[in-house]
Amino acid sequence: MTQWISKLLDSASEFFAHRKGLLPLAGLALIVVNLILASLLPADNYLVRANLFLHLGLLLAIFGLMLSWAL
């Protein structure tokens, strides 16, 4: 199990080392999706009330920036 996790982390770090802006761009895309859904869906919808994609996008963008500085 630990070898599988180690191999997964190694391949993920190799993948993201060449694509440093991918995670922040994906996070920004989720924030835009939240903006679009908030304007299209009714106000009592769970996705609109919780701003789910906004929070996920913000976390992904911050994590992507921290990871790009580390790599």
Short note summarizing the structure:
By secondary structure, the protein is mainly alpha-helical. It has four helices and no strands.
Can you tag this structure with a few keywords?
single chain, 71 residues, mainly alpha, 85% helix, elongated
User: Quick one: biggest sheet?
Assistant: none
Name the shape in a single word.
elongated
Low-confidence stretches: none
Task: Quickly count the domains.
Answer: 1
Q: How many strand units?
A: 0
Structural class based on helices, strands and sheet pairing:
mainly alpha
Rg calculated over all Cα atoms? 16 Å
Q: What percentage of residues falls in helices of 4 or more residues?
A: over 70%
**Average pLDDT figure:** 88
Q: Which oligomeric form is depicted?
A: single chain
N- to C-terminal separation? 25 Å
Strand content: under 5%
Number of helices: 4
Q: What order do the helices and strands follow?
A: HHHH
Molecular structure report:
The protein has 71 residues and is mainly α. The chain has one domain. 85% of the residues lie in helices and 0% in strands. The protein is built from four helices and no strands. It has helices at 2-18, 22-40, 46-50, 52-70. Helix 2 (22-40) runs antiparallel to helix 4 (52-70). It starts with a helix and ends with a helix. The mean pLDDT is 88.
